[in-house]
Write a structure and sequence with these properties.
Length: 652
């Protein structure tokens, strides 16, 4: 148990540390500052890299050609270096073998009294003098091609100068004998018979001035002197010429490689430019076409693939312009036809209305069949007048002549007027209209007439399709937005119908009669009214579970919306109830009272668990425009929406 508490304490400490880092600890501020300083110069380069295809192709060509040149250079340098060293080793071994043979031959030559080679006469000479003469004679044949070093037999320890005998170190050309011959080579020569070689550096004594060490190939062998005592003879072959040759090869390869890389990059730039330039031209013309400049065309030269692409693009643009022109003409004709018909029908409709009113007022004197016909005539004329009014309003929206008369209003007053007008229909249907969230003022700059028309349409539709169940109207405000949601528990909407419901003359069930005399244009006009305010009108529904329509308006005119204070999917939907039930089952001991099953309203109490909140729809996908309402992830939902939903739950 103690270990569990310790683990819990460590977890709590790590959580507190993470929270402090998130809440603005000094480390977090420094980290954010560092990230900002790093991102500031990097972002323009990243943006240029992502947007410039020519730069990416040239950079890729540059990197690949550089990699090829480097690989080729390493291979060539390795082969040249190997060839130079092999040739040097072969020549050095041959030269050293000849010198070793000459030295041993001189040591084995019988003594003479006099002769032409007085220096080689062993009479009257000790071994030390003979060795000095031998080193000088052997080095004279090299002419700076090699140096000769003689060391006494042993493990390679340094012997002081002036020591008599063969044990003294001797060298030609001011070479430091003990420093120039590696110890491992001396040990190999001392312990084994034969010729040994290794790579080392020739180091010079102070008598040679400031001459720098140079690489060399050292070849050594054990020999005997005139007295039969062993000594070590070494040939040191400088590799300065080979090093100069290798450096020349490296510089040549580097220069040629750099030239090749630059040349390939220039070629890639020119080649890609020939392809990218027409593509950029097509992109620019496409942008101008999308901006409405339909007369833009590409300049076509030649007969290659790019030219054929330009011709096809121009043909596409021409056909697109023709089609758009045809559609604009057709739309203009349709709008004019609707407007003309709507205006022209008002005069005969007024005459028919006057005659119908006279007949309707005198229906008590008619027989039952004629009286019923008079009532039907009056009802259909009312519906015809509503249809004409809706057609006129639609024509205003299509022509862009709809005007917004915005002023600060309290949406609670608008909702009360709408509910008062819908009460007779609700009593006839056996429904009850409930209002939530009306304890605080909900103020927004809006056109009261248009908002009332939208809410009247939503409430009447909810009552008509509510199957005699309750209709809930909810108000909320948060930040820069206000919202009104109308919830019913009727037939609901099938998947995909939440966007089609705002289309003109659309019905979920074509066989269903319009008992309230609707024209099929109410929701289309409502969504246009919402857009005119800069707001959203969105729908949610589930088959058999009812539906909810949400109107979201900016608190101030011309203020962009960033979220809605009411979730589009209500808390009492099937999905949310299932999640709430799962949460309740996990904490059954914390439940204080069972759900009230006697209430005829299917609205359960709002759960207090924050994770049960519904996910709002994407506000950028407006219904009625053909775009689908896609739910966003919970972590991307606006913070103000979740906060206001919780506040609404506390208020209830």
């Amino acid at each position: 148990m103690q270990s569990g508490r310790d683990r819990g304490g460590s977890r709590w400490g790590s959580l507190r540390a993470g929270r402090l880092l998130q809440e603005g600890a000094p480390g977090a501020s420094v980290l954010r500052l560092c990230v900002r300083l790093v991102r500031r110069p990097v972002l323009p380069a990243v943006r240029l890299w992502r947007r410039n295809m020519q730069l990416r192709v040239v950079a890729a060509t540059l990197l690949m050609s550089l990699a090829v040149v480097l690989a080729l250079g390493f291979v060539v340098i390795a082969q040249v270096s190997k060839g130079l060293l092999d040739a040097k080793e072969e020549a050095a071994q041959s030269q050293a073998a000849g010198g070793f043979a000459v030295a041993q031959e001189k040591a084995n030559t019988p003594a003479t009294v006099d002769g032409p080679d007085a220096a080689d006469n062993k009479v009257g000479l000790d071994a030390s003098t003979w060795m000095n003469s031998l080193v000088k004679q052997l080095a004279s044949g090299g002419q700076t091609a090699f140096e000769v070093v003689a060391l006494g037999a042993g493990t390679g320890e340094q012997v002081l100068p002036g020591t008599q005998g063969v044990k003294g170190a001797r060298a030609s050309g001011n070479v430091d004998p003990t420093a120039s011959v590696p110890v491992n080579l001396r040990r190999a020569v001392n312990h084994s018979a034969g010729t040994f070689k290794t790579f080392s550096e020739i180091r010079y004594t102070a008598g040679a001035g400031e001459k720098a060490p140079e690489p060399a190939l050292v070849v050594g062998k054990r020999l005997t002197d005139i007295n039969g005592d062993p000594y070590d003879l070494y040939y040191l072959f400088p590799l300065s010429q080979e090093e100069e040759s290798l450096n020349l090869v490296k510089s040549t390869i580097a220069t040629a490689g750099l030239f090749v890389v630059v040349l390939l990059s220039a070629i890639a730039w020119l080649v890609v430019r020939q392809i990218v330039t027409p593509v950029r031209m097509a992109a620019g013309i496409a942008e101008r076409l999308s901006a409405g400049r339909l007369q833009e065309r590409m300049k076509v030269t030649g007969e290659d693939d790019i030219a054929r692409l330009g011709e096809a693009f121009n043909k596409m643009a021409q056909n697109l312009q023709n089609k758009i022109q045809q559609l604009e003409d057709l739309s203009r004709m349709q709008r004019r036809f609707v407007s003309d018909v709507s205006h022209e029908l008002r005069t005969p409709l007024t005459t028919v209305r006057m005659a119908a009113d006279v007949i309707h007022d005198a229906r008590v004197d008619f027989d039952p069949v004629t009286a019923r016909s008079a009532e039907l005539l009056a009802g259909q004329l009312d519906r015809f007048e509503s249809l004409l009014a809706d057609l006129l309003e639609i024509s205003r929206f299509d022509a862009g002549a709809a005007a917004l008369e915005a002023e600060p209003i309290d949406l609670r007053d608008v909702v009360r007027r709408v509910i008062d007008g819908a009460e007779p229909l609700a009593e006839h249907k056996g429904s009850r209209i409930r209002v939530l969230g009306d304890t605080q003022p909900v103020i927004a700059e809006a056109d009261a007439r248009r908002v009332e028309r939208v809410l009247r349409n939503l409430v009447v539709n909810a009552v008509e399709h509510g199957e005699g169940r309750d209709v809930v109207v909810r108000l909320a405000s948060a930040g820069g937005a206000v919202a009104v949601a109308v919830r019913d528990y009727g037939v609901g909407l099938k998947p995909g119908e939440a966007t089609r419901v705002f289309n003109r003359f659309w019905r979920a069930d074509p066989a269903r009669a319009r008992t309230t005399g609707g024209t099929g244009l109410g929701l289309s006009i409502a969504v246009e009214d919402a857009r005119l305010h800069g707001g959203w009108l969105q729908a949610w529904g589930e088959p058999g579970g009812g539906s909810q329509f949400r109107l979201t308006l900016p608190r101030t005119a011309d203020e962009p919306l960033r979220g809605s204070p009411i979730p589009l999917e209500p808390e009492d939907s099937r999905a949310n109830r299932a999640r709430a039930a799962a949460e309740a089952a996990g904490s059954a001991a914390d439940r204080q009272q069972p759900a009230d099953t006697g209430d005829r309203s299917p609205i359960p109490p709002r759960p207090a668990v924050a994770s049960v909140q519904s996910v709002p729809a994407d506000p950028t996908a407006l219904p009625g425009s053909g775009a689908r309402v896609v739910a966003r992830p919970a972590e991307q939902a606006p913070q103000e929406e979740r906060t206001d939903a919780d506040a609404d739950a506390d208020g209830r």
